[in-house]
Amino acid sequence: FSLQHKYPVSNERFYLELFGVPTLLYQFSNLGFIPPSFGPLWSVGVEILFSALFPLLIMLRTRLSMSQILAASLAVSILVQLSSHLFAYRGLQLGLPQHLFNFALGMAACEVVSRPAAFPRLGRLLDWITPFLPLPLLAALLVLSIKDTASSHMLANLTFSFSATALVMALGVGKAPVLCSLLENPRLQLIGAMCYSIYLWHVPMLLGLFPGFATNTDWHAVVPYAPLYLALLFAVSALSYRYIEFPNAEVRSLFFLGMKPAKPLSRPTSPLLEPIVAVTEVMTEAVTTEAAPEQASF
User: Fold this and answer.
1) What's this model's pTM, rounded to 2 decimal places?
2) Three-class SS of residue 111?
């Protein structure tokens, strides 16, 4: 904020951001939903709110089927998107209500990957559709890049979300062995593990260090600086990843040093994934033991 704030000290917006971001109040303001000095923080707020809501969703999962949770969250997402025609409120239309469905899809993927035997019909469906999943993913990205209407944007987002989740499920249960082998490369996994820090820093560094880089369409002028930008981005992201995201993790495991590729369906090689595995196992055990038999599946 001190390096990149957009308003002078005499402007009330300076103080709205200074106090709004640390208190999370910016998530409920149209003016500050995307903080001017650090735009990527909008998604941090959404994820903090989801983290606060997550225990409630875990309790609901012991009483409702995953299909019911997905249907309810999808209905909320569609309704808040349609509401943009009546009024504009970013905290609703770009905030947690809009993205709750994506988080629910993540919960569904965790369940399927952690106990694939419980979903035989879904497994058979994945056998058929996995080879074709890249097609709707590419089509959705194409629509998002060339269309600007609300209906096409919503449909493309939903197509991408469903297709991407199905691909994650297929990878998790070993339906795409060639792609699984590629993604088991520890160097690629490191980039995946660091992706959040990379996401947070890529825009501020791009605009702060190479302001012309972001808007220059002349590739001859841009390409020579790309390696320098990417190297600096990786270095800063690594510091954020090490000291902010995972300050207590062991460095070698954090950066996948000396680690061998994991076998499909084995426990994760990196301790970073252990909390995810533990939470999912507790959740699915609770679902299996407490929910009615018909509610223990999708």
Assistant:
1) 0.79
2) helix
